[in-house]
Amino acid sequence: MQQIFNFLIRNKNSILFLILFVVSVYLTIQNHAFHKSRFVSSANFVTGGVYSWSNNINTYLHLDEYNERLLEENNKLRNIISNIHDSISVEKQLDSTSFEGDYLFRTARVINNNFSKQDNYLTLNRGKESGIQQEFGVITSQGIVGIVDRVNDEYSRVISILNSRSRINAQLNNTNHFGSLVWDGKDPNIVQLIDVPRQAPLQKGDTIITGGRSLIYPKGLPIGSIEDFTLDQTQSYYTINIKLFNDMTNIGYVYIIENVNKEEIEKLQEVDEQ
Amino acid sequence: MNSKLFSNITRFIILVFLQVLILNNINFAGYINPYLYVLFIILYPFAGNQSLFLFLSFLLGLSVDIFEDSGGINAAACLVAAFVRPNLLRFSFGISYDHQNIRLAATPFGSKLSYVFLMVLIHHFVLFSLEMFSINHILLILKKTLFSSIFTVTLTLLSLTLFSKKYR
């Protein structure tokens, strides 16, 4: 017994090292699993506070740019509105059973954004108090950003599309061929669309949009344009490099999308599975 | 002793904030960031309590991790760097380390460089290996380690020179 104690005391540093090392590796592995990182996340009171403080200064310096983006988006929306008046004003009235849209949009500010690592996250200044929940989609006026993965009262953390664990359903604009949007970790402006069947007619410069198959994003949001494409080893699926419309390295304000009908659809699908 | 404790705590806090607010946003050439917070581990009193030192290093890495949303990779890297520090000190400064009477500012540039460079290299290698978490990316890991190390070592030596107490 005495010898065991002596051994422990003599090697207390090595033992401490081993214990702490195991803890940190455990945290790392947990962080690699979707929705699992309970403890280490920047969506908490202290880090959120620090980030929003530093971001207040940063935002002020970029006001011009944000204004310009808003103008651009307003312009786009105005064009759409004027077209609606021309063509489908009658249809709109007929479809008056659902007063609210299928999707609810909220705005938020990005207070922390990284894009240089393998697994990147963003932190937003909205949380549970503003009605944000897990698995809400996050977009900008130009393209998609990611999916909310952790929420506390005032802040939320978003899994960026520049994350090795992010998989988002996307499709071609011209046809309905779809695939999964992933990132290989190399260039923050280029993401990959994999598992697109060989039959799909591809052309450089074609637009890629979100597919309606997930409950997170509405169908038809722009993502990017095709940069180049190759067939994979089995020669039956394309891997497509996509240049994002969105500059992921420079995001100021975002929209958070809530799918209002999500619960109902999920219930329906559960019934289906049973 | 008290002033030493105070200066170490201040250094801890300042380095964490400097790292997460400024240095993590540099992204030189797309992905190269300096990890200057290793300076805390490099400068920690050589004769200090080793167990406390390990624990503080872990805490330092974990603080950066929480800000960065990176799990425990910085904590693990700091821990390894702190654990091997006595060996590196002996390697770089030789016999004088065993007498515990070296002051980093007063050592020759060559041994200072080798000490700092090895510390940073080990820290960065563990950091990027855990970040990639895959042996397939070994080339990318080595590339990131090398470039970021050069950046960090340059900054570390600069700040050592700037804040050295030699002339006071």
TrEMBL record, chain B:
Q: Which residues cross the membrane?
A: 12-32, 38-60, 72-93, 113-133, 145-163
Superkingdom of this protein's organism: Bacteria
Q: Could you identify this protein by its name?
A: Rod shape-determining protein MreD
Q: Which UniProt keywords apply?
A: Membrane, Transmembrane, Transmembrane helix
Answer whether the UniProt record assigns the keyword Transmembrane to this protein.
yes
